[in-house]
Amino acid sequence: MIVILRPEASQEAVGLLMEQIRSQGVEIHYSRGTQETILGLVGDTTHVDEDWLRASGVVADVRRVSEPYKLANRRFHPEDTRVDAGGRTIGEGTFTVIAGPCSVESEAQLLEVAQAVKKSGATCLRGGAFKPRTSPYSFQGLENEGLALLREARRITGLPIVTEIMSETQLDDFADVDVIQVGARNMQNFRLLKALGHSKKPVLLKRGLSSTIEELLMSAEYILAGGNPNVILCERGIRTFEKMIRNNLDISAVPIIKQKSHLPVIIDPSHAAGIAWMVEPLARTAIAAGADGLMIEVHNDPPHALCDGAQSLNPAQFDSLMQDVRRRAAFEGKAFS
User: Fold this and answer.
1) 201-214 pLDDT, tens digit each
2) Average of pLDDT values for 147-173?
3) Cβ contact 28:18 at 8 Å
4) Torsion on CA atoms 289, 290, 291, 294, rounded to nearest 10
5) CA 122 → CA 6, 42, 116, 270, distances in Å?
6) What is the DSSP letter of 184?
7) Which neighbouring-strand residues pair with 125?
8) What is the DSSP string of 299-321?
9) Nearest Cα residue to 115 out of 270, 271, 318, 320
C-alpha cells in the first residue's frame, strides 16, 4: 500500500500518522522525492482502513500495489536509486563500466589487465576469485588468494573491486570488497540474499539463466527487505533454444526494469552472447536502451584464459570499445562515472 502525502503536510502531523500506522503492525518506508512524499506500507495491510487514511488531513491519496515486490517498486520509491560503489556512483544520470578478467589467474595477469582497463577509463575492476563452474574439473578460481590479489590491484590502480560471492559464510572474507556480486546461479539463493540484506554492502545482482524479470526483482526485494538499499541489477542474458550464441540478451529488460523499479540496471554483454566480437554491438544496444552501465570481461591473453576466453576482449579491443562507449553515453546525456 502507498500513502501519498499532501505537499503542505507538517512533519509533526506526518509523524503522528506514522505512529498510528505502525501501531497496526505495519512497517513504513518513508520516501521524499522532488514531486511527492510517499509512505510505503509493508506487511499485512489488509486491515489498514483506506478510508481512515484518506480522512487524515495530511493524506492526498492511497493506492494498493498489486506487484509482489514492494521496496524494489518504483511506486514505493519514485526517485531513482544511486549506489555509491567505492566512491563511484552507479545509477541514473551516470554511466559505469566494470571491466576485468572473468577469473583472477595470477598477480601478473590481474595487474596487467587492471592497469589497462583503468587507462581506458573503466569505473571499477571486476575479477572472479571464486568461480562457480558447470564442471567440477574446471578452474574454480584462486579463492582467498584471488581476493588478496584484487585488494592489491585496487591499491595500485585506485579502482573499486567487484567480485562474486558463493555463500553467506564468506561475508567476513568479503568485508572490504567494494561491490559484492551475486551470480546468475545464486540469484535465488535466499539465505545468501537475506545475509546480504543485513550487510549494507553494494550488491550487484545478476539475473538467473532462466529467471523472469519479476523473479529478479523479487530477489532484489530480499536484499532490500533486510535493510540494504544498495542494489544494482544486471541483465546478462537468458537461456533460450538458440544454439548460435551462449545466451540471449534480453534488452527489453532494461526499459521494463526502469519502468517498474528505481534500481540501477547494467548489462553484461560478455556473458550474453559468449562471443568477443558481439560485445561491442550489444554494448551499443545497452546504451541506447537506457542502461546505467556495462560489465565487460577483459583478458590480457584471451586464447589462453582459464575461464571464458572466447567472450573476453583484449586490452586493445577494450580501449577501442571505450572510445565508442564514451561518445554514445555522452549523447544519451549520461556522465561517465
Assistant:
1) 999 999 999 999 99
2) 97
3) yes
4) 70
5) 43, 38, 9, 15
6) G
7) 99, 161
8) -SSGGG-SS-GGGPBPHHHHHHH
9) 318
